[in-house]
Amino acid sequence: MTRKLSFLWLSVVFILSVLFLAACSDDQDASSTDSDNGEESGSEEPVTLSFFSADGVEKSFDDPVAQKITEKTGVKLELDYPVGGNDEAIPLMIASGDYPDLIFAKGDIGKLIEAGGVIKLDEMIEEKGDNLKAMYGDQIDRLRNSLEDPSIYTVGTNPVETAYWETSGTFQVQLDVLRELGYPEITTLDDLEKALTEYYEKYPEIDGQKTLPLSLLGSDWRWLITVGNPAGFAAGIQDDGQWAVDDETGETTYKFLLPEFKEYFKWLNGMNDKGLLDPESFTHTYDTYISKISAGRVLAIADQNWDFADADKALIADGKEWRTYAPLPVTISEDQTSQALKDYGFSGGWGIAISSTSEHQERAFEFLDWMASEEAQILINWGVEGENYDMVDGKRVMQEDDLERMQSDADYGKETGVGFYVHPFPRWGNGAVDSNGQSITPQNEQQIIDSFTDAENEVLAEYEMENWVDWFPKTEDLGISDHGAAYNYTIESGSDLEIIQQKADDLTQQRITQAILGDPADFDATWDAMIQELEDMNIDQANEAMTQKTQDTMELWGTN
């Protein structure tokens, strides 16, 4: 009897041992699988994902919105940005083979794809990208890389639904100039020059400092947005970077070859010759440029809103509302139509990629997919309920302090996180509404109108307008771009197109600067010599290659 009981006991122990070892083996397998997939399932500690962004400013991921993101996703971001606009960051990554988990490379994404530094996202989007699929809908093909490689490597950056309640990048003139001159109509370069000349003659100094009728920033990469791009806006051409595109045929031309651009820069040359252009426009630093605007002594600029936003806030904080700016629909002549409110559709193109060396690829993708969710979109745009906004009668309403800081405090986004993580992550866009029919961003048109200063409202009333966009040709009248925007195209690293464009960009920045600052008598000769140099470097070959890219894009998107 005892032997039978002993045998029975040993049998039970043996069976339990086998079950225990099997369970341990399963746990080890699961642990191994989690490790292979970069998962840390069951861990109470959040996973840290390194994230390099070619845009932005250095900061830690610890503001209230960031903390909420971590709470919802179990992910912390270790943020890294290139110092001083360094454009060698991606090539250095490729050379070392050392990649962060997430990468926003802008135009260098092609180099990463070619180097095998980033992964394809198609399978994960199909299997677990419900939020991304809902966000992009039938426009998801616009994320695809090319006809030859129609894979998806990136998500994010460009908004899917855009409402055009604001303009950016066009000429802007001080409100006081408009008031002092009796609210003139300013729609052409000649109109603008006349207004600046008249005001400058009346007020050669502002607050004891020399008045600067027009200031640009052509000493660094901002040459593109304060010198090159405004020429296209004045020419009535949509923003395609360094290119001009015929949206019907797809024919694409290096834009500085067009006669309208010569006409624009000849006008700038005349402005310089007359002493109306800041003589330091091509030598001063960004900080000096912003300092001049912040002092209220720059009458007009041609710049993107985000580039001089800190100066604008400083002016308001200093009680200098009349020294802030009104955007103008200025073109070379009445023959052109401002494209400032042009609808580009969803442009696809640049976005955030997941690196091929990341140990957390699944987790990184799940994070990006969550950022495309309604919950995330409300959080990153509005902030934390009760801290940044309140629910009033079932609607989100920004708190007064936050509204004021948005307008006047340059550090608001960095400190609170509100709006800071919109770019370059997946985003619905300011034209989207949530499941309750409310705007997904606080920047709806009424909020924009409500945020205008007393000075702005006074000027708008004089022109019988409610919003600055009332000045511009309407979005619905300008049509939707069939090719998106050419600056979003991926140009293959080391290709003839990349090499020719880089040479052309370096040449035109140098020669056009010389033409603007030179003697008006020499302008035509300087310009003609530049055109010849472009032709000698086979710019026609680049035109043909970009035309093919445009036509391929339209075929890929089904818009041709």
Automatic annotation (TrEMBL):
Extract the Gene3D superfamilies matched here: Periplasmic binding protein-like II
The positions making up the signal sequence are: 1-25
KW Signal (keyword) present: yes
PROSITE patterns listed in its UniProt record: PROKAR_LIPOPROTEIN
Q: Which InterPro entries match?
A: Bact_solute-bd_prot1, SBP
Q: Does the keyword Signal apply?
A: yes
| This protein's UniProt keywords | Signal
Name recorded for this polypeptide: ABC transporter substrate-binding protein
Q: What is the lineage of its organism?
A: Bacteria, Bacillati, Bacillota, Bacilli, Bacillales
